[in-house]
Amino acid sequence: MIAALSGGSGKTIVSVGMIASWRKRGMVVAPFKKGPDFIDAGWLALAAARPCYNLDTFLMPADQILLSFTTRTLATDIAVIEGNRGLYDGIDLEGTTSTSELAKLLKAPVVLIVDCTKSTRTVAAMVLGCVQFDREVNICAVILNRVAGARHESILRKTVEHYCAIPVLGAIPKVKSEAFPERHMGLVPTPEHAWADLSIEKAAEMARQYLDLDRLLAIAREAPPLTDLPPTPPASPEPSRHSPEAKSMADGRERWRAGLTLASQSYPPSPKNAPPPRIGVTRDAAFQFYYPENLEALEAAGAEIVAVSALADSGLPSLDGLYIGGGFPETHAQVLSKNKMFRQDVLRLAEKGLPIYAECGGLMYLGESLVLDGKTYPMVGLFPVVFGFSKQPQGHGYTIFEVERPNPYFKPGMQVRGHEFHYSNVLSCRGKSGDLAFRMIRGTGFDGRRDGLCYKNTLATYSHIHALGTPSWAEAMVEAAVSYQPNPYPQVPPP
Length: 495
What we know:
- Helix content is 31%, strand content 23%.
- It is an alpha/beta fold and 495 residues long.
- It has two domains: 2-221, P-loop containing nucleotide triphosphate hydrolases (Rossmann fold), CATH 3.40.50; 244-484, Class I glutamine amidotransferase (GATase) domain (Rossmann fold, 3-Layer(aba) Sandwich).
- The chain has a six-stranded mixed sheet.
């Protein structure tokens, strides 16, 4: 577990460097990101050349975290988990959602990164405080970051190792940050980073030069075994739908469907020997925020995933459902707006009842328009909403919403946990707040009180959900697609 005293201390760059360095040695590294972050996870995945999975004690139960971690590390040499914020930071007094609690759950040795800017002996006091704060957290090593020079490093090493009895296994000097430009409180998404491979290489070189990778590897190998694991594996342990396991699950679609507990209304059964429903996933530089588990859950429930691009494609292929994830449509507003044929295709199929699920950026795309720097960019126009943008986050953090109105994917009465992070706000909406499907218990949502725009079989929300915490979502999405496939899906009346 790569942790720190606070956010912005260098966890991502150090984690990326370690992962890339070990991969260059021929090792198979399993990357994980603590928390709901998409951007850091994208960089970790790029460094490891395999998907990065999120582990979040707010979004998913402990047994699912353990199952996800153990099954996704079976055929790997080492797992690297990047923490978030400070080691003990959480949303409550007990720190139940903190990096430290995840480290204890997984019995993961913790490597603590410390920003040493304008500090010497105080660094040892901060490290010792972390050690004493919770003795069940196994802090095994320290990495010094932003060290001013050789003399500064010498003082830091001596004081930390003397007072804390913990080895210092790296000292990184102050370096320029151009290789990893920042945006929106995180690193730039890798699909927008034309020179991402060069950035990964620079991080790997930094790790090789300044970290004791052999001793760090030895610490990881001393991690105790996990016991009392849940008996049932997750739906799809492998990252790719082309793997034998994923193919087997697709072939066994009828067996999966037989055990589904639907989150919404009952759907008519699909014909025997029907082909798997095709669910389009909008994946391009504008829409790139998807948890791998969400896509795997759709496949495990019987869907065939079809990648589409709102930027490059002239229209939608033959589909039985559409999933539009989050991203930054505002940075590609002009191209999205110019691709009129794709927008019209989405609108046409939504009106026909195509099951569509949209999150955050996808919600904005389905609106009437985006307003940026005084210019208006038309979007799909399914919902009569105009979105603007602020320099500060308008919604940021964990969410809880209660489902109050009928919709295709969540049963009324459910409470769903998610995460939101958006700079957009609603400039105008020709509708009533009470028409929205969800009541916000925690978080901002669409208007501070509600969320969930629903029209026919389209549902759009600011909250990102995780399939390990809300498994019924994928089941309902696939069932809606199956029902749409052979005959018109019974539509939810519009508000």
